[in-house]
C-alpha cells in the first residue's frame, strides 16, 4: 500500500498544527461558530445530536494492521470503545470531545492517517472496489490511480470551497463494485483497441434528494490526462455550480440543467487549455504510484488444490460451507480467496465494531492476509489475500470475534446510515428498522434461497444509506413529528445502475418487517430459477408488489 | 461624448466588499492607496466624472469605460464579483495594475478559480487583491491561487494574520506559487 514520504508527513503534520490553532481560537472565542464550521468539517468533525462525530479518512478503503490497531487505541482513549465503518470506506467515531480532536489527529498522523476532507464542500475520499488487485474480472488495479487522485485532491487550493461536497469513485473491473455511476465523478478504467489504458468518465451521478445516475461525458481518456481532466471538470463546476440553494448545488444539478452535452463541451474546452500542463502525468509518475501496490508474496499452489481441501471441510461442516459460500470471494491467484468479515450480526448497528474487534481484525490481517485490511462501501471488512488452506482456521477465529455471520450480499447485509439515534439531520431512526428486519429474517436457508439482495436504509433524504440504489430501499420520513418509512424497489448500484421506484404510502416502524416479508413473498412466488430479486423485479415491475403490500385485508 | 456606465445594471452577490484603510500586500501591512467603487445606485459614471486617483471599478463599469480610460491605465483597477469569471477580463488582465476578487461569503470559493486563471491563463502580473469576507484560514490557499494582497474586513490585528500564511510549506498540486505538482518533483526512481 502507499507509504508516506517526508513531504506527505510534513503536509499532514502542518495540517494538524493548523487545526490545533483553529480549535484553540474557536475555544477562546476568536473564531466564530460560523467560521469554524467549514474548517472543522474539512477536518472530519461534525457536531451531532449527542456529541461531536469525527470521520477519519481511509483512502480508497485500504489500511494496514498498525493503522487498525491505532484506531482501536483511539476509540479506547478518546471515545467509548467502538467505531463505525461508513459507505465512503471511512471510519467514524461517535463520541470524541472537541478539545481532544487535535490530539486524535496527531495520533493518526503518526501512522499516516488523517481526517482531511472527510466532510465539507470539497473533494472527499476517493473510493474504489474492495477487491481491487485480486478480483478475477479486473482489467487494471485502480488503487495507483486512486492514490494519484488522493494527492491531487488533498489541500487543493482552488477546490476547498466548492458549491457542495464532491465525490469521486474509480472502478477497474467489469463488475462495478464501487457504484461509480452514483458519484459526482465516476472513473471506469478501460483499454482501447490499441491496448492502451484509459478512462471512461462519468459525471453528475449522486443520491440525496435528487438521485441521478451519472452520464458518460468521455469514453476514452488516455491515462496520463487523468488529473488535468478531473481539474477541468471541477473547475467548470466551481465556477458555474449553484450556490444560492444548497439542495441544488451538487454537480448533478448543473449537469442536468445545462445538459450533459453542453457540460461536456465546457469541460473539453477548459481541458484543452490545461491538458498538456503541469498536471499531465508522466509514465514515470504512474509507474511510481503502481510500485506501492505490488503483488504480495503469494505462494505457488497448483490449480484446484485449495478447492479440494475446501470441499472436504465444507462437507463435514455445514456452517463453514455457508460462510464459504457467502463470505468469500474468488481470487485471481491459485490457492487464494478473499474474505469478507461481516459487521452485520443481528442486533449490532451495521458497520459498528468494538476496539477489541478492531484489534482482532488487525491480528487476522497479520496472520492471514499480509497485514492489509479493506473497508467496503457496504460497511464490512475485507481480508483480500487469504490462502484457501487457512480459510477454515480463519473462519473459526472470525466466529469467535463475531465477524462470521454468513450473510454477505444477502438481505441482512444491509447498508444503513447511523440515523436518528446519532445524526442530527435524520428524520427517523434507521438502526432499529435494520435490526427488526434482521430478527424477522434470521433463517439462513431462507436468506440463501433469496440469494443476492441489497437492502439499503437511510434515515432521511440525504441518502447516506444509499436507499435509492438498493434493490429494496427504505427511507425514513417525518410525518407530523412521527417516524415513517417509505419503501422503494428496483434500485441497483452496479454497472446496470438504476434508481428505485417508490412503492406507495409509507409505513410505521412496526409494519416494516411484515412489509418486507410481503415483498419477498411476491418475489419468491414469481421468480424463475436462478433469478435474483432485481431480475424478477425488472421482469414483473412494481405493480405485483404494490398489489400485495397494499391489499385490503379480506 | 464618452458613454456613461450605469452602476445599477449588475446586482451584487451578497454584501458588497468594504475598502479598509490598511491591508496586507506581499506579506507586509500597508496603507490602502486604492478607492473601491461599489456596485449599485442609479448614478451614471463616465470617464470624465470619475474622481482622480487610484480607483477599483466594478467589472461592468470597467467594461463600459475602459476605452475612455486609456490615459489613466496605471490608476484603474477592476473588481470581480463572485459570479463574474476571469475570462470576462481575459487578456486585458496583463495591462491592469490591480484586480480584486470578491468573497461575498468566505465559503463562496469562485474567486480561487478566478485568481488562478488571471495569473496562469491571462498573464496578470499586478496586485491580486482578495476583498470581502474571506478569512485568515484561507490565506495559504489564496496565496497558492495567486493572491498577494488581502483586504481584511472588520477589526483584526493584521500582523497576527501573517502567521496563517505559513500554515503550509509544501503542496501536492501545481498552482501559481508552485508550478510543479508533487508527481513532477519527487524522485520517482
Describe the 3D structure.
The complex is a heterodimer of chains A (554) and B (189). With 554 residues, chain A is of the alpha+beta class. Chain A has helices at 6-27, 33-41, 65-78, 101-110, 143-153, 226-240, 251-258, 260-274, 283-290, 305-316, 318-327, 355-368, 391-400, 431-440, 444-450, 512-526, 533-540, 543-549; strands spanning 45-47, 52-56, 62-64, 82-85, 91-93, 127-128, 168-171, 185-191, 197-203, 215-222, 328-330, 336-341, 352-354, 372-375, 381-387, 415-416, 455-458, 472-479, 482-489, 501-502. Chain A has 4 domains: 6-110, Sulfite Reductase Hemoprotein, domain 2 (Alpha-Beta Complex), CATH 3.90.480; 134-290, Sulfite Reductase Hemoprotein, domain 1; 305-400, Sulfite Reductase Hemoprotein, domain 2 (Alpha-Beta Complex); 415-549, Sulfite Reductase Hemoprotein, domain 1 (2-Layer Sandwich), CATH 3.30.413.10. Chain A has a 5-stranded antiparallel β-sheet. Chain A has a 5-stranded antiparallel β-sheet with strand order 3-14-15-12-11. Chain A is globular. The N and C termini of chain A lie far apart (61 Å). The model of chain A has no long low-confidence stretch (mean pLDDT 95). By secondary structure, chain B is of the alpha/beta class. Chain B has one domain: TIM Barrel. Chain B is 17% helix and 21% strand. Chain B contains 5 helices and 10 strands; from the N terminus they run E-E-E-E-E-E-H-E-E-H-E-H-E-H-H. In chain B, strands 3-2-10-9-8-7-6-4 form an 8-stranded mixed β-sheet. Chain B has a two-stranded antiparallel ribbon with strand order 1-5. The relative contact order of chain B is 0.16. The A-B interface holds A 5, 7, 10-11, 14-15, 17-18, 22, 35, 38-39, 121, 148, 151-152, 154-162, 227, 235, 238-239, 243, 273, 277-279, 281-282, 284-285, 287-289 and B 82, 85, 106-110, 112-113, 116, 121, 135, 137-138, 140-142, 144-145, 167-175, 179-184, 186, 188.
Amino acid at each position: 500500500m502507499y507509504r508516506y514520504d517526508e513531504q506527505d508527513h510534513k503536509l499532514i503534520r502542518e495540517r494538524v498544527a493548523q487545526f490545533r490553532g483553529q480549535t484553540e481560537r474557536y475555544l477562546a472565542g476568536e473564531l466564530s461558530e460560523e467560521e469554524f464550521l467549514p474548517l472543522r468539517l474539512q477536518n472530519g468533525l461534525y457536531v451531532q445530536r449527542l456529541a461531536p462525530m469525527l470521520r477519519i479518512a481511509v483512502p480508497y478503503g485500504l489500511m494496514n494492521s498498525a493503522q487498525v490497531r491505532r484506531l482501536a487505541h483511539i476509540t479506547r482513549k478518546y471515545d467509548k470503545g467502538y467505531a463505525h465503518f461508513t459507505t465512503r470506506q471511512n471510519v467514524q467515531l461517535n463520541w470524541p470531545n472537541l478539545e481532544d480532536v487535535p490530539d486524535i489527529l496527531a495520533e493518526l498522523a503518526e501512522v499516516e492517517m488523517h481526517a482531511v476532507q472527510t466532510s465539507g464542500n470539497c473533494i472527499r475520499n476517493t473510493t474504489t472496489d474492495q477487491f481491487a488487485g485480486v478480483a478475477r474480472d479486473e482489467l487494471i488495479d485502480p488503487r495507483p490511480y486512486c492514490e494519484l487522485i488522493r494527492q491531487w485532491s488533498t489541500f487543493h487550493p482552488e477546490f476547498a470551497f466548492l458549491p457542495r461536497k464532491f465525490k469521486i469513485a474509480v472502478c477497474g473491473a467489469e463488475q462495478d463494485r464501487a457504484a461509480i455511476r452514483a458519484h459526482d465523478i465516476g472513473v471506469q478504467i478501460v483499454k482501447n483497441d490499441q491496448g492502451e489504458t484509459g478512462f471512461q468518465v462519468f459525471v453528475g451521478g449522486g443520491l440525496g434528494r435528487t438521485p441521478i445516475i451519472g452520464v458518460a461525458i468521455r469514453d476514452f481518456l488516455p491515462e496520463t490526462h487523468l488529473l488535468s481532466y478531473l481539474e477541468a471538470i471541477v473547475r467548470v463546476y466551481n465556477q458555474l455550480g449553484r450556490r444560492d440553494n444548497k439542495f441544488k448545488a451538487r454537480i448533478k444539478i448543473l449537469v442536468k440543467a445545462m445538459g450533459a452535452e453542453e457540460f461536456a463541451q465546457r469541460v473539453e474546452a477548459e481541458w484543452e487549455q490545461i491538458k498538456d500542463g503541469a498536471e499531465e502525468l508522466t509514465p514515470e509518475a504512474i509507474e511510481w504510484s503502481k510500485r506501492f501496490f505490488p503483488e504480495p508474496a503469494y505462494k505457488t499452489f497448483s490449480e484446484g488444490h485449495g478447492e479440494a481441501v475446501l470441499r472436504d471441510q465444507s462437507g463435514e461442516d455445514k456452517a463453514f460451507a455457508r460462510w464459504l459460500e457467502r463470505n468469500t470471494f474468488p481470487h485471481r491467484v491459485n490457492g487464494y480467496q478473499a474474505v469478507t468479515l461481516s459487521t452485520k450480526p443481528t442486533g449490532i448497528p451495521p458497520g459498528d465494531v468494538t476496539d477489541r474487534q478492531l484489534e482482532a481484525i488487525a491480528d487476522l490481517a497479520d496472520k492471514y492476509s499480509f497485514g492489509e485490511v479493506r473497508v467496503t462501501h457496504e460497511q464490512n471488512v475485507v481480508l483480500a489475500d487469504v490462502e484457501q488452506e487457512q480459510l477454515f482456521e480463519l473462519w473459526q477465529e472470525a466466529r469467535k470475534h463475531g465477524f462470521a455471520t454468513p450473510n454477505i450480499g444477502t438481505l441482512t447485509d444491509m447498508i444503513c446510515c447511523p440515523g436518528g439515534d446519532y445524526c442530527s439531520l435524520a428524520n427517523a431512526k434507521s438502526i432499529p428498522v435494520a435490526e427488526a428486519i434482521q430478527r424477522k429474517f434470521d433463517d439462513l436457508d431462507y436468506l440463501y434461497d433469496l440469494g443476492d439482495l441489497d437492502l439499503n436504509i437511510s434515515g432521511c433524504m440525504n441518502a447516506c444509506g444509499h436507499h435509492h440504489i438498493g434493490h429494496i430501499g427504505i427511507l425514513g420520513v417525518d410525518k407530523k413529528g412521527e417516524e415513517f418509512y417509505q419503501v422503494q424497489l428496483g434500485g441497483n448500484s452496479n454497472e446496470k445502475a438504476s434508481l428505485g421506484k417508490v412503492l406507495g404510502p409509507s409505513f410505521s416502524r412496526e409494519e416494516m418487517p411484515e412489509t418486507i416479508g410481503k415483498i419477498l413473498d411476491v418475489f419468491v412466488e414469481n421468480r424463475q430459477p436462478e433469478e435474483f430479486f432485481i431480475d424478477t423485479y425488472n421482469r414483473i415491475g412494481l405493480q405485483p408488489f404494490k398489489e400485495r403490500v397494499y391489499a385490503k385485508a379480506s | 461624448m464618452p458613454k456613461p456606465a450605469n452602476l445599477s445594471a449588475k446586482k451584487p452577490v451578497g454584501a458588497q466588499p468594504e475598502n479598509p484603510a490598511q491591508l496586507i500586500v506581499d506579506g507586509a501591512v500597508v496603507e490602502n492607496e486604492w478607492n473601491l467603487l461599489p456596485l449599485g445606485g442609479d448614478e451614471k459614471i463616465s470617464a470624465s466624472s470619475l474622481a482622480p486617483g487610484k480607483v477599483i471599478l466594478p467589472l461592468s463599469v470597467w467594461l463600459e469605460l475602459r476605452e475612455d480610460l486609456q490615459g489613466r491605465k496605471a490608476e484603474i483597477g477592476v473588481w470581480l464579483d463572485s459570479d463574474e469569471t476571469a475570462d470576462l477580463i481575459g487578456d486585458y488582465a496583463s495591462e491592469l495594475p490591480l484586480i480584486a476578487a470578491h468573497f461575498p461569503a468566505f465559503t463562496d470559493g469562485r474567486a480561487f478559480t478566478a485568481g488562478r486563471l488571471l495569473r496562469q491563463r491571462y498573464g496578470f502580473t499586478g496586485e491580486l487583491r482578495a476583498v470581502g469576507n474571506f478569512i485568515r484560514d484561507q490565506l495559504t490557499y489564496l496565496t497558492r491561487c495567486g493572491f498577494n494582497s488581502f483586504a481584511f474586513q472588520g477589526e483584526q490585528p493584521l500582523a497576527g494574520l501573517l502567521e496563517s500564511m505559513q500554515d503550509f510549506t509544501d503542496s501536492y498540486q501545481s498552482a501559481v506559487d508552485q508550478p510543479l505538482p508533487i508527481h513532477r518533483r519527487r524522485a520517482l526512481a
